[in-house]
């Protein structure tokens, strides 16, 4: 289990601008070429490599460091078949009352054979509350479990797969997955990954992507080039298992140094780094290819001061009126309070919005869009934030996943439409001199990983 042990120096290592750009561009190119794969070869996938990828996902930030996620590696062919049959049955039921026009197609209609052919399925479960045993009975613990935490971890998982050269397809889980995998009642299935390597002749479908200016709103004349067509599938370099293990271990050692930072210098960041990092974020896959995320970038000091003032009004209400004793206890080791200087000290703020989009606007009608028990736009947006955090870390920048509660004031301040809702704020910049961070630990791999 993760623990808190006071505060420690950040030990931030500044890198020169040319290295910032080199690292960032490598990451952006890696994520931009990623394509979903629906047809897998029989090439074996190393379980040790996949375990390290999960270990990387476990380094993601989470509210009060609760780390509310469980990853389940599924290799058992009988379980994979059970999941495939459940997926096809559920899809058939959803389609009974669904009609499409002649220009649309159901990308997942019919067989889900990939769920059996993939060497592994990886199910991500979100922990919704804690459980403790008292006098032989299990009791609920209402921890501070932020809904965005598990899908942010999924963004780390996605980037780690791509770094390892492993292909995947991400889909919402079948509704019966909790029963199939016999998971406890305090967990709920969030995402299902089919992972492996594409067949030799695999060709990804032609898909468009929204332009950068549609997805990123900022106060800049710098608009980086972005692809409005998804690239063709390109196979990653084939490596030995030893080479893959070394590569993923190196990435783990790099990304685990990323920390949430609350104390920033007022040094300005080259804004081009931030907009370039967002190029990686907007490649994040989504049901129906809807890209239901928007990012607002703020660097104007007066606007940052206004956002801080509005946030501190809500934070004061939270700490004085809304917060539970358990929530307060979970936050105490982080030393947080209603004062939010990071909102004005950091060079830039990035506000991530989820967008509720009508499924009829989908380029490819994916039957997962017909599910009503999941906030697919929230999951996609939080995954995109996870990818973005990786990009900013490669750029040598510090961030914080700040989730004011409630956040409607941000939508009102930016005059965003009613179908958009902010999910978090990322201050971005360089750390203050002598910056300290909570001395937290992460859960052991055995606490977040189950193998079937």
UniProtKB/TrEMBL annotation:
Keyword Oxidoreductase attached: yes
Q: What Gene3D superfamilies does this protein map onto? A: NADH Oxidase
GO molecular function (one): oxidoreductase activity
Per UniProt, residues of the Nitroreductase domain are: 32-197, 255-430
Coiled-coil spans in chain = none
Which keywords annotate this record? Flavoprotein, FMN, Oxidoreductase
| InterPro entries noted in UniProt | Nitroreductase, Nitroreductase-like, Nitroreductase/BluB
| CDD domains registered for this protein in UniProt | iodotyrosine_dehalogenase
Q: Is Acyltransferase found in the keyword set?
A: no
**Top-level taxon of origin:** Bacteria
This protein's name? Nitroreductase domain-containing protein
The species this protein belongs to is: Thermoflavimicrobium daqui
Q: What is the lineage of its organism?
A: Bacteria, Bacillati, Bacillota, Bacilli, Bacillales
């Amino acid at each position: 289990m993760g623990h808190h042990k006071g505060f420690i120096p950040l030990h931030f290592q500044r890198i020169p601008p040319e290295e910032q750009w080199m690292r960032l561009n490598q990451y952006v190119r890696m994520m931009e070429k990623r394509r979903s794969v629906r047809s897998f070869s029989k090439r074996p996938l190393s379980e040790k490599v996949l375990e390290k990828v999960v270990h990387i996902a476990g380094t993601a930030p989470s509210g009060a460091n609760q780390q509310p996620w469980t990853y389940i590696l599924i290799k058992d062919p009988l379980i994979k078949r059970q999941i495939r049959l459940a997926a096809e049955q559920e899809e058939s039921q959803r389609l009974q009352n669904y009609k499409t026009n002649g220009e649309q197609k159901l990308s997942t209609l019919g067989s889900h054979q990939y769920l059996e052919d993939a060497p592994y399925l990886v199910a991500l479960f979100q922990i919704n509350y804690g459980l403790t045993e008292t006098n032989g009975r299990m009791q609920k613990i209402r921890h501070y479990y932020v809904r965005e935490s598990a899908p942010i971890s999924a963004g780390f998982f996605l980037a780690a797969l791509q770094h390892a050269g492993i292909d995947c397809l991400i889909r919402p889980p079948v509704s019966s997955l909790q029963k199939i995998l016999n998971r406890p009642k305090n967990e709920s299935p969030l995402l299902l990954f089919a992972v492996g390597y594409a067949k030799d002749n695999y060709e990804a479908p032609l898909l468009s992507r929204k332009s950068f200016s549609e997805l990123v709103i900022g106060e800049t004349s710098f608009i980086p080039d972005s692809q409005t067509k998804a690239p063709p599938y390109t196979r990653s370099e084939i490596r030995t298992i030893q080479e893959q293990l070394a590569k993923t271990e190196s990435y783990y050692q790099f990304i685990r140094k990323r920390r949430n930072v609350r104390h920033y210098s007022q040094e300005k960041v080259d804004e081009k780094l931030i907009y370039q990092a967002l190029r990686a974020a907007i490649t994040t896959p989504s049901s129906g290819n809807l890209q239901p995320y928007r990012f607002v970038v703020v660097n104007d000091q007066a606007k940052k001061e206004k956002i801080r003032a509005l946030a501190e009004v809500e934070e004061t209400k939270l700490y004085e009126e809304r917060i539970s004793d358990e929530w307060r206890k979970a936050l105490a080791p982080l030393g947080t309070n209603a004062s939010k200087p990071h909102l004005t000290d950091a060079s830039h703020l990035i506000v991530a919005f989820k967008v509720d989009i009508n499924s009829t606007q989908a380029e490819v009608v994916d039957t997962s869009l017909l599910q009503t028990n999941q906030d697919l736009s929230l999951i996609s947006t939080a995954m995109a934030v996870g990818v973005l955090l990786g990009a900013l870390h490669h750029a040598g920048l510090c961030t914080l996943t700040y989730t004011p509660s409630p956040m409607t004031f941000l939508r009102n301040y930016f005059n965003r439409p009613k179908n958009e809702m902010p999910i978090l704020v990322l201050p971005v910049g360089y750390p203050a001199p002598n910056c300290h961070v909570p001395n937290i630990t992460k859960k052991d791999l055995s606490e977040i990983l189950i193998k079937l």
